[in-house]
Design brief:
- This protein has three helices and 35 strands.
- The N terminus is likely disordered.
- With about 500 residues, the protein is mainly beta.
- The strands form nine sheets. A ten-stranded antiparallel beta sheet has the order 22-21-24-25-26-35-31-30-28-29, with no helix packed on it. A six-stranded antiparallel beta sheet has the order 16-15-14-13-12-23, with no helix packed on it. The chain has a four-stranded mixed beta sheet with strand order 8-9-4-11.
- The radius of gyration is 31 Å and the shape is elongated.
């Protein structure tokens, strides 16, 4: 869709040379400069000819910078545009009334809009540059619906043609009213989300995902790199007041953590040039450094990828979604390869968020021969949920996990079908359901003994765990791939 500024230039010059000094200027009513209620409701008044006019308020559009308020274009904006709404709008964009013409020889009654990306500043014209002839009352008010030809927006505009000179069209040059105007926020109706909204910030690498949580509230999950290893995961979770457009927010903190949701590992390389054990507690990956949660990194995030409805997005902005996928790839050292800086395990964690449910699909690709001693797959963190029930186990009712309580599901041989635990806030009906799919190899607990527990809480941080390798020295060959999957559902 071509910019018609240059095409219109020759025609404009001939019209202005003959008419601007005379009839057009005198036919316009002087604008009342009084601003009524700021950019708010439209207040209209009748002049001595009984016509309707805006009372000086730059509504339903406003200017982003100074313009020549003596110009005809400004007079048309103020006195001629009496109503303007945008339906099916995209929150990533500002909207502009780009061109307007009244019975002009080349463009007829053209009405053209554009949208401007809030982050990149890229402008897209939404209608084709062509002559448009409309049936209208040139002495009064007319309302039209104008559809975007390249996206979903529908514009409804009310124009008083009695104050627009016959044969006139707008100036499309930079800094003029038809380039500097923006449709007021009150007039923009955004497309309502289905399941989720993503606000992506690729510069800071923070990704906010919102979903319906309760009848009265929404939930926002913040994915970002954190901890000594800078691995991306669910760093914080917030509750917000119910919002029609599911706009992510950070009103009430439920969780803000420096520990891990996805388990670290205890690994030891058995071939190659290795060093003495330099990881004090044996754990690497997740948020574990060489000294617990501090020291030097024992892993690195090598890449991440964001998808909305199955398509990759790489631009910061606001996205309505049926589903959102955040895929993170991490390289992890063994406890005895830190000094020589060798990664023995590649970990891919794929989070797929649908509503308030975070599906997790994790694949481990072993790059060297190792012994694997511990991995606890799906963990929960923080003190927001302080009661726990484990389905198909002795812990069917809710019991406290506070104060270092060690609550266990019972041994694998007696309770082999344990796959779900539900955590509860002791002060509210707010729950977190944690489910492990038993159909994958690690889901089948192939490396657990009959006496090992399948789910448990442990320690002063109220963490809960889903062991898939526990207290073992399992020999894993280079090239081996293992997988587990499950979900976290916020209820």
């Amino acid at each position: 869709m071509a910019d018609i500024s240059k095409e219109m230039g020759v025609i404009r010059n001939s019209i202005y040379a003959s008419e601007v000094r005379g009839d057009i200027v005198s036919s316009l009513v002087k604008v009342n400069d009084e601003v009524v209620n700021g950019i708010g409701a439209v207040e209209q008044m009748k002049n001595n000819r009984g016509l309707l006019f805006n009372k000086g308020a730059k509504y339903p559009v406003y200017y982003t910078g100074g313009v020549n308020e003596a110009s005809i274009d400004h007079q048309v904006i103020i006195n001629g545009i009496l109503g303007l709404t945008v339906d099916n709008a995209d929150m990533n964009y500002h909207y502009t009334l780009r061109y307007l013409a009244n019975n002009q020889s080349t463009y007829g009654d053209l009405i053209m809009f554009s949208r401007i990306h809030k982050t990149t500043g890229e402008e897209t014209v939404l209608q084709t540059t062509k002559k448009v002839v409309r049936e209208l009352d040139r002495a009064g008010l007319n309302t039209f619906q104008v559809k975007s030809e390249s996206s979903e927006e529908l514009f409804t505009i009310t124009i008083d043609y009695s104050v627009i000179p016959d044969g006139w069209f707008s100036n499309g040059s930079a800094g003029t009213p038809f380039r500097s105007n923006r449709v007021a926020m009150d007039c923009i109706h955004y497309t309502k989300p289905k399941n989720n909204v993503l606000v992506a910030d690729f510069e800071s690498e923070e990704f906010l995902v919102s979903a319906r949580y309760k009848d009265y509230s929404d939930i926002t999950i913040c994915f970002k790199p954190y901890g000594v290893n800078g691995i991306m995961s669910m760093q914080s979770i917030y509750k917000n007041s119910w919002n029609e457009y599911l706009v992510p927010g950070k009103t009430t903190s439920m969780i803000s953590t420096s520990t891990d949701w996805i388990s670290p590992h205890q690994l030891e390389a058995t071939t190659g040039e290795n060093d003495a054990v330099s990881v004090t507690d044996g754990w690497s990956g997740g948020t574990h450094g060489t000294s617990g949660g501090t020291g030097e990194p024992t892993a690195q995030m090598t890449s991440f990828r964001i998808e909305v409805n199955g398509l990759e997005v790489t631009t910061s902005g606001h996205y309505n979604a049926d589903d959102i996928t955040i895929e993170v790839v991490n390289d992890i050292e063994a406890r005895n390869t830190h000094t020589v800086k060798r990664f023995v395990l590649r970990e891919r964690v794929r989070y797929t968020i649908i509503g308030a449910c975070v599906h997790v699909d994790t694949t481990y690709h072993f790059k060297e021969d190792v012994t694997w001693s511990f991995c606890k797959s799906m963990q929960t963190v923080g003190s927001y949920w302080t009661l726990m029930s484990i389905k198909d186990s002795p812990v069917e009712g809710f019991v406290s996990i506070e104060n270092s309580a060690n609550i266990q599901s019972g041994p694998k041989k007696d309770y082999p079908t344990v796959d779900t635990r539900i955590l509860k806030n002791k002060n509210a009906d707010e729950f977190l359901k944690v489910y492990l799919d038993l159909s994958t190899d690690l889901g089948k607990r192939m490396y657990l003994n009959d006496t090992d527990v399948l789910m448990e809480s442990l320690g002063s941080t109220n963490k809960t765990y889903t062991p898939v390798v526990i207290n073992k020295n399992v020999s894993i060959s280079s090239g081996t791939i293992h997988q587990w999957r499950g979900y976290y559902e916020f209820l």
